[in-house]
């Protein structure tokens, strides 16, 4: 059984459907679903990126184990710790 309000609402939708241009292309439900999935994927990627960026330590620590400040570590000359090639 339909109530008076649902009947009134249906008559408004019918009049809107009559004025709809059938030659006009619209994205429809599939376009909304694709847009929503892309939006959700971007949100998940941003959440993951924020988690990984919080775990990054941006301060440089001294390599020789001395308890120095960040200023001394930044001004210290950088030396290469690469192993030297073996010669026979």
The succession of helices and strands, N to C, reads HHH
Secondary structure category: mainly alpha
Low-confidence runs of at least 5 consecutive residues: none
Report the total helices.
3
Distance between the termini: 97 Å
Q: Helix amount, in percent?
A: 55-70%
Number of strands: 0
What does the average pLDDT come to?
A: 75
Proportion of β residues?
A: under 5%
Largest sheet: none
CA radius of gyration: 32 Å
The shape is elongated
Characterization of this structure:
With 88 residues, the chain is mainly alpha-helical. It is built from three helices and no strands. The longest helix is centred in the middle third of the chain and has 27 residues, at 28-54. The model has no long low-confidence stretch (mean pLDDT 75).
Summarize the structure.
By secondary structure, the protein is mostly helical. It has helices spanning 4-19, 28-54, 70-75.
Write the topology of this structure.
Layout: H1 4-19, H2 28-54, H3 70-75
């Amino acid at each position: 059984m339909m109530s008076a309000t649902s009947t009134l609402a249906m008559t408004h939708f019918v009049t809107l459907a009559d004025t709809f241009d059938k030659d006009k292309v619209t994205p429809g439900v599939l376009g909304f679903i694709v847009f929503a999935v892309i939006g959700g994927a971007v949100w998940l990627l941003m959440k993951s990126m924020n988690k990984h960026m919080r775990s990054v330590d941006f301060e440089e620590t001294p390599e020789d184990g001395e308890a120095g400040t960040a200023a001394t570590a930044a001004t210290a000359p950088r030396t290469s710790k690469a192993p030297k090639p073996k010669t026979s």
